[in-house]
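The records we work with from here on pair a chain with its fold. Each token is a code from a learned vocabulary of local backbone shapes. A record is reproduced here so that you can trace the correspondence yourselves:

_____
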Amino acid sequence: MMTKAEKVYDLLKEAYPDAKCGLDYSSPFQLLISTMLSAQTTDKSVNKVTENLYKEYPDLESFLKLSQEEIEEKIKQIGLYKNKAKNIYNMLRVLRDKYGGQVPKSMEELMSLPGVGRKTASVVLVEAFDIPAFPVDTHVFRVTRRIGLAEGNTPDKVSDEMMKKIPRYKWHLMHHLLITHGRITCTAQAPKCKACSIKVVCSHYKKTPVKD
């Protein structure tokens, strides 16, 4: 018998056949920077900033020439830019001194970098290196709890739950499917329940059904 998680996966896959990472990047290093910038900020806003940033500073060597204040100036359109600039500035030096300028490929090593938490590390692992992980951002956290797939009260706990409920090979796409659903349909405010492709298995919809 198909589990609820598998049913959600299939329905969302049918609803959003083009679901994928929303960040623009051309290397693991750029993905790391973009993911650090994306905290509490939309991918669209990050891409606007990095489009020109990566043309001028495409790699670690070029980024290392920037002072913390210069990084702030480059990313000031993004929320929390001062704290993000500080983390990026420090992260660049650890990347150079501890990892020989290469983005590490393990959760533990990635999380040893300044400003890199489990969500950012998970995104880098799965997107840049195709290493199974289950990143949980605000959309995934909200949607999984709302529809009754997870009960964890932190993103890390939700990640652990989801990794137990679906096969490893589905983690990557499921992450993108849930993000896309959260952006388009299962929004934080006024979710579009009548148009929802998974309302038949949604705990929230069953408790507060919206009449068609």
User: Anything to note?
Assistant: The radius of gyration is 18 Å. Residues 70 and 117 are 24 Å apart (CA to CA).
